[in-house]
Batch of 3 targets.
Target 1
Amino acid sequence: MSHPGRGHGHSHNLSEIPAVLSPFARWFVIVTLSVIGVGVVIGAAVLWPSDSEHTIPMQFRSADGGSIQTVDAHVVDLQRADCLNPLTGTVQDSAVFQIEGAAPEGPCVAATAQIDSGDDTGRHTLLEIPTNRAQAGSGPGSVAPSAEQLDQPQAGQPSLTVGDKIRLAVVPGPDGNTRYTFFDFQRTVPTIIWALLFVAAVVLVAAWRGLRSIIGLVFAFLVLGVFTLPAILDGKSPVAVAVVSSAAILFVVLYLAHGVSLRTSSALLGTLMSLVMAGVLSWLAIETMHLTGLSGDQTVNLQVYQSSISISGLLLAGFIIGTLGVLNDVTITQASAAFELAAAGEPTRLATFRAAMRVGRDHIASTVYTLVFAYAGSALPLLLLFSVAQQPFGSLVTTDALAVELARSFVGGIAIALSVPLTTVIAAALARPAGAAPIGTESSASPPPAASPPSGGRHSRPDA
């Protein structure tokens, strides 16, 4: 039976024991991360893109071969009329166009837009949006539009209302005068509003740390825009560029958001090692599943206009970058859990590892769901299209488009599962548990009672 005096001495000693870090583990992590950091700097210098010109893809090219020029505009009037109005795209000072064949059930929507920028600021142009009524007929196997859909714009055409802010593409007309066509909606103001709401929510809840994470996110996008994309377009290895970019982002983002400490360093090392594993797994998945990445129009267009880019390498690079966020989430949680459990009184490193792994198992279960459903959500239109294809389920899920998303989910899930024990081992080695206090830290403030043998106090702390 424990004596009250001895119990008090044990509790007092534990409260006085600092979280002393293992010198060997500490220096191993510091040296390893330093070597990796130097490698990232050298890799960025070797892979840094040049300022060479690149061919503009056809869909982004204007009639003169340059990039598409756009201006701002807003819709001031909508009318139903016959299609093929000769005034479409032309410019005039008045907002009233001569609409031929105007009728409440006309097959086209004649939209008058006022130009807000460029050489024709303040003037007006006419846009023509065909509805389903203008459709000559239905193709083989297609479904005819219902009565409710007859007045809706055809597939791929914009649905405009008065007051909509839009962007117009500048195109040369057959008579040499400038003409305008619909290019896209203006989204600058809504995007800024949503971005501010996002920043406000993160900062209000996470305070200064949340602001630092936002700054880290901005840095990540700068790396992608300034280094990653230009280097790949320059013909550099997509895999090498992805690895260097990911490592650079992790170094800055983790230390910026969570501070410079060995706790953060353990998460960083665990993330980098997990990222290497994810790269190897991605390569194996691409090779064994014979993934081409050519099911998407963007990839095909890129291969046509930038033939020097390795499509398989680009697919692998996408796998690697895609695992960054989720691995970062899992590893920082595991590192924090291990350090907190050690500081809370776990007696040994093994006990710290086991306790942190109990947290990690719950994290794996929830994060795998997040990862898979995120990929499923992005492929939802494709899933709907395939659901009406009347093909066997096995053949549908093994098409290149769906197989790529499945491979992303599989690789991400395996990387998450492996990153948890890996990071937990590193963190548990760094965080010295409370029960492993250095010799000589025991307090003598509560000596054992006289009836107890001299060694009784030590027997009450077998882990000292």
Note: The longest strand covers residues 70-81.
Target 2
Amino acid sequence: MKRVLLGLGSNKSFNGLAPMELLSHAGEELSRLMKDVHFSSVYRTKAMYVEDQEDFYNAAALGWVSDDEDAFDFLHKINEIEAKYGRDRSREVRFGPRSLDIDIELFGDERIETPELQVPHIRMEERAFVLIPSVEVLKYSADEIVREKYINCLAALESKGGAEGIIKLQAFPKAVENGTDRKR
């Protein structure tokens, strides 16, 4: 089985669903794509890059897929989930508000560098809002070396004040919480 680490974010409602509800729905969908999924807590964070927008709600998901799962096929599956919950990349401002954003942070030990997909995610190490929830769920991975790497990245960011303003809100939304540790 291949370990998959995803970053989730939302700061814009869609079809009457608030960002926390959108994350919950995304979690349900992701639980069908991956096995033995674990979700981090949800964190409220200030927007980066384009700062004049609502705060984001961020989380991470760690799960496993079969060794023969293709990263690009998996990317298309999560893009379909994003679209289902209101994401339209053709109409959004880069780094602007979005109803749902799901990024592949890690996909097994693969290294991918294409215009469509970069793994490990190219900005993961500069984003405390990704690192904090990722470190939280990476404890469920047997790969302590990977977790330690991101703990060190987070410590470096924290030493420069790069993790300020990130507030832990709660365990992952209740609609998904009961399924987080089930084998599928």
Note: Residues 178-184 have pLDDT under 50 and may be disordered.
Target 3
Amino acid sequence: MSSIELTDSQKKILQELVDLYRESESAVKGESIAEMVDRNPGTIRNQMQSLKALQLVEGVPGPKGGYKPTANAYSALDIQEMDEPETVPLSHNGEPVENANVQEIDLISVHHPEKCRAEIHLQGSVREFHDGDSVTVGPTPKSHLVIEGDIDGTVDTDNVLVLNTTGMQAPAEN
């Protein structure tokens, strides 16, 4: 757990920077972040100065410049970076999602099957997901767990999908 306390606005901007950086693997322009978080580019520049002072972002000068997250940014957002993470597939309304990987699955109230919910933590943005959309997660690498459900909400500052589960399957292994 990180000891840096970020405001909700800083966390949202930093999370968007990380998501955009993962997609492009190059410096991210402040204007791109501003567009994604629906803020003024000047506000983003001011926030980036604060995040630079906290050593969470670095500026990249030049025409292809912008901002890059530092290793501290991943720590501040509680994102575990692995060299070669296993891929856990994710489908959204029946279509595979290319720029996202499931990082963690938290099951909530599994003792009550009619009200079972799951929190799906993604490496990648949740901006294209909306309440009521159908999602399929898995199979996971070890247990081959597959979870199906409908989105009940999103937490964009943490890239979390909250699902009302409609089905779970995990083949038992000998």
Note: The longest strand covers residues 146-155.
